[in-house]
Amino acid sequence: QVQLAESGGGLVQTGGSLRLSCAASGNIADINAMGWYRQAPGKQRDLVATITSDGSTNYADSVMGRFTIANDNAGNTVYLQMNSLKPEDTAVYYCKADAIRRIIGRQARYSSWGQGTQVTVSS
User: CA angle at residue 116 from 110 to 117, to 5 degrees?
Assistant: First the structure.
């Protein structure tokens, strides 16, 4: 099992910046990808950015050029640097870890989610 703890959300004005952190614990060696998702009231949960264990990244078109995802050297913490924030970025942001548990003769895939952190951008 992997547990995730998010932090860094808050209230910021249009054009401001925030840095979100997601600390993973438990079976972190099983993680092959981590990402950030967001959900605004009345809307579905959408992908924001992902990073794989080899360091490759992907971004939603809506945040490309403004947001940056990165992890630390140990690979147990992922960050989301959010710049040039807009009111439409307002949402609860969730951290997600995709993991593979390998056992002799078996392979189990699972995902873990953090509790979410609120980001509010005022205009």
Answer: 150
